[in-house]
Design goal:
The complex is a heterodimer of chains A (406) and B (412).
Chain A lengths: L4 E9 L6 H10 L5 E2 L12 E2 L13 H6 L2 H17 L11 E6 L5 H13 L16 H9 L6 E4 L5 H14 L5 E8 L3 H9 L23 E9 H6 L6 E10 L12 H14 L8 E3 L6 H15 L8 E2 L2 H4 L6 H15 L1 E2 L22 E2 L4 E8 L3 E8 L5
Chain B lengths: L4 E10 L2 E2 L1 H10 L4 E3 L12 E3 L12 H4 L4 H17 L11 E6 L5 H14 L6 H7 L3 H10 L5 E4 L5 H14 L5 E8 L3 H9 L29 E9 H6 L6 E10 L12 H10 L6 E5 L6 H15 L7 E3 L2 H4 L6 H14 L1 E2 L15 E2 L5 E2 L4 E7 L4 E8 L9
Parallel strand pairs in B: 5-6, 5-7, 10-11, 10-15, 11-13
Antiparallel strand pairs in B: 1-2, 1-8, 1-9, 3-4, 7-8, 9-16, 12-14, 15-16
Helix pairs in contact in B: 3-6, 4-5, 10-11
Chain lengths: 406, 412
């Protein structure tokens, strides 16, 4: 018997807001978080922009000693986690710490710290602190969160980069399904670093102006950063402690294109397959889907493949489903993209507002669906999907639903 | 109550042998894969040793045209998948590719590629950033290589959580198979011994002989143990629902029958010091504790983990702890995040053949680790079931429970 899993806590750090209310307001107002890069010197690059997190005052959250030990990625993750945990209202009497686990998705993780160490090491200019190397493992942020509140349940980190934190939500849900946990902290955190920036840049996948998903003028992604953390919980556990329930996690799909290391399968077969897998797992029919939070990276090929996949999965009805490409505002947050977008999807269900795809002006005949251009819309949403696709054709689709008592 | 999950194929690329036969022969004879590091210069370090793979002609396993896009760790894991597939007799052309999955764990995957990419970037600026290196540098590239090489279109996931990465990959595969969401999943993982990784471990003080006066060596549960020796390699299991295995008349090595996951919180680089969490993982995994005859230990020659694991085993099994054979294959392979796949292959062979490989290198059993450790020579023992332990620094502890396969015996 499948257990019902609900979302009881949300936390977020992003280029458009460092708390859930700020983030959500920015999304529905269509605010773009893209700005000039400050975390490293971008002057030698063709493009100099990213959706960078700003106005985050680490001193307000951590001691000086902690700041030295925590990577930028750890800081985002912990701040979002604290917000999510607080909003879930879990106090020490209401849970068994052995049955609360953490599964996060990672991208480049704390590589900004590792970069700093190796820059000094290879250039031989000065000796860097080995403590920067603690971030060498992608598991570091996950472990920090578990250790902060002594959470002793199942713990792991998914590493499929652009789909990592969507995969992590699926894996976290399985921990509850397997009876190993009552509550799971999930989602992901990632920070800008020169390695990933230069990598995407070398593949000519970065737009020099802004991110324009599904628009004919799109030239690629804008890299973002941040953290999106969800507290998910077995329904009975949430009810017993009288927690407010924000939405239900109905199921997910995960599969591979098995096509190419970076390019998506062009006909959208992999996208179709993952959507179908997700709907089957969730027990939802294609007719019930009210909105889709797209992967929508604004790379020329991704948006076409995703559009084709959605059309293959939904047929004629595809045109009626409002699709939201929020990477136009928060950038592509890589390891935390799926987590942040899952937070947005849950808010869409809760508030009945679908955030827009901004910078949408020139339609592309190959992307001919309803992308919610430039203005958010009000709609009673009962079932929402969130797509994430990664290099190598690692596809994940999450299905969230409005919580209804049965 | 869910499908039974069985192990029908084993593929290992290890410091003590490529392929099942060579690997098992070395295990039984207690041959060490640890020797002086040759692939890069270690003269500036206090440590010299590594569990290293021999030179491998990857063309034996991978189409030459496809070799070009893979880095070394990619080739290692893709080869292990090939070996596992051939061993299982599975013909993917006969299968529904969407029902075949892959679940891989790796601690630091393409660390060498990331390093090459970064050095070139440092030297030449943005023009030095090599797109071909970047696309193989992501941790899931390994898994993608396998999916592309063999047309595996079902479940595809990569885990990276230190020393429990591969055990998580097997856990996830097991669960999906139990629920019938795949017919076959290639599960396991691997890591390579690279210079940057070696540097990081050394700077964090994890390598034997540490800062003391001791002798460098991998000696799990020994009173003189003083840190790890890094190893490398990949191990892949073909995990399959029993129905599917029977339908195609597959040979079954063992049954995978349970998983346990638990977290400890002693510190970011600390293992489970008191053993409570490792104990809980074993307790959750092995639903019939009284049938456990053997534990393939996580013990990695560090004072903390070996001590913690010994405490855990005593907590779970009490007086019976002395009857349970314990061995750490890391004594032959070295320690690496993705070692779980190879160790799981070894455990399946132990159950199948009724033989337990020795813990080599250990001479003076630490009185605090007073377990029934198989020392010196391999040991013949008919077994009902066994546990594979893993424990990460930082605190993700995963135990897997394997049973000797018997037709008809029902799964609880």
């Amino acid at each position: 018997m499948k257990k019902r899993v609900v979302i009881t806590g949300l936390g977020v750090v992003s280029a458009v807001g460092n708390s859930l209310p700020e983030f959500w307001n920015s999304l529905i107002e269509g605010r773009d978080g893209t700005k000039e890069i400050t975390v490293f010197d971008p002057s030698a690059y063709r493009t100099k922009i990213a959706a960078e997190v700003s106005d985050l005052n680490p001193e307000a959250h951590f001691s000086k000693k902690e700041i030295r030990r925590l990577s930028r990625c750890d800081q985002f993750g912990l701040i979002a986690f604290r917000e999510a945990w607080k909003s879930a209202g879990l106090n020490q009497d209401s849970y068994n710490k052995e049955r609360v686990g953490v599964v996060l998705g990672a991208g480049s993780g704390g590589i900004l710290s590792v970069e700093k160490y190796f820059r000094d090491y290879y250039q031989g200019t000065k000796k860097s602190s080995p403590s920067l190397l603690i971030s060498y493992s992608l598991a570091t942020t996950t472990d920090h969160i578990a250790i902060e509140l002594d959470l002793r349940g199942p713990r792991t980190t998914t590493a499929t980069v652009c789909s990592s934190s969507s995969a992590s939500i699926g894996v976290a849900c399985e921990m509850i399904q397997m009876g190993l946990a009552d509550v799971m902290v999930t989602g992901g955190s990632d920070s800008l670093c020169e390695v990933s920036y230069s990598g995407f840049s070398s593949l000519k996948l970065v737009d020099p102006e802004n991110c324009k998903p599904f628009d004919k003028r799109r030239q690629g992604l804008v890299i973002g950063e941040g953290a999106g953390i969800l507290v998910i919980e077995e329904l009975g556990h949430a009810i017993k402690r009288g927690s407010p329930i924000r939405a239900e996690f109905l199921g997910y799909g995960i599969c591979a294109d098995a096509y190419h290391l970076t390019a998506p399968e062009p006909n959208g077969e992999g996208v179709e397959r993952v959507i179908r897998l997700a709907l089957t797992h969730a027990g939802v029919s294609p007719e019930e889907v009210d909105t889709i939070n797209a992967h929508g990276t604004a790379t020329p090929f991704n948006d076409i493949a995703e559009t084709r996949g959605i059309k293959r999965a939904f047929g004629e009805r595809a045109k009626e489903i409002p699709i939201s490409g929020i990477k136009s505002m928060i950038g592509h947050c890589l390891g935390s993209a799926g987590g942040i977008e899952a937070v947005a999807t849950v808010m869409t269900l809760e508030r009945g507002i679908i955030p827009p795809t901004i910078h949408y002006e020139v339609p592309d005949p190959l992307c001919d669906l309803n992308y919610t251009p430039n203005q958010s819309i009000k709609k009673d949403v009962r079932v929402a999907l969130s797509n994430s696709f990664a290099f190598g054709g690692n596809n994940v689709c999450l299905v969230f639903g409005k919580y209804e008592r049965e | 109550m869910g499908h039974r999950v069985v192990i029908t194929g084993l593929g290992m690329v290890s410091p003590i042998g490529i392929g099942k036969e060579a690997f098992w022969e070395s295990c039984l004879q207690g041959i060490s894969g640890i020797r002086s590091i040759q692939r890069f210069d270690v003269s500036s370090y206090r440590s010299r040793l590594g569990g290293q793979l021999p030179e491998i002609d990857f063309k034996t396993f991978i189409k030459p045209a496809n070799l070009r896009r893979m880095d070394r760790i990619g080739k290692i894991v893709v080869s292990a998948v090939r070996l596992a597939m051939e061993d299982s007799g599975l013909d993917l052309k006969e299968e529904d590719s969407s029902q075949i999955g892959i679940s891989i764990g790796t601690g630091l995957g393409s660390s060498d590629t990331v390093d090459q990419f970064f050095r070139s970037l440092l030297k030449e600026g943005p023009v030095g950033a090599a797109p071909l290196l970047f696309q193989t540098a992501v941790p899931n590239a390994i898994t993608s290589h396998c999916a592309i090489e063999y047309g595996i279109k079902g479940v595809n996931i990569t885990f990276s959580h230190k020393e429990s990465s591969t055990e998580m990959a097997m856990t996830f595969a097991y669960h999906l198979l139990r629920e019938g969401r795949a017919d076959v999943v290639f599960a396991g993982g691997g890591d390579e011994l690279s210079e940057p990784l070696y540097h990081v471990y050394s700077m964090l003080g994890a390598l034997s002989p540490g800062r003391g006066k001791g002798v460098e060596g991998m000696k799990p549960f020994d009173r003189d143990r003083n840190g790890i020796i890094l190893g490398e390699g990949s191990g892949i299991l073909v995990l399959e629902t029993l129905e599917h295995a029977k339908k195609r008349g597959a040979k079954v090595y063992a049954e995978m029958a349970g998983v346990g996951l638990s977290g400890s919180t002693d510190g970011l680089l600390r293992y489970d010091l008191k053993g409570d969490s490792i104990a809980r993982a074993m307790f959750l995994a092995a639903q019939e504790l009284d049938t456990v005859d053997y534990i393939s230990a996580a013990a990695n020659s560090t004072p903390d983990l070996d001590g913690g694991e010994a405490l855990a085993i005593k907590k779970v099994f009490g007086k019976r702890a002395k009857e349970i054979s314990v061995s750490s294959l890391k004594s032959m392979l070295g320690e690496f995040d993705g070692s779980g796949g190879i160790r799981a292959c070894g455990l399946a062979l132990s159950l199948y053949h009724g033989m337990i490989p020795p813990t080599i290198g250990t001479e003076h059993l630490d009185p605090q680790c007073d377990l029934n450790v198989v020392l010196g020579q391999s040991k013949k023992k008919d077994m009902c079931s066994a546990i594979l332990n893993s424990a990460s620094n930082g605190g993700s502890n995963i135990s897997l429970w394997f049973k000797t396969y018997r037709e008809g015996s029902s799964h609880k």
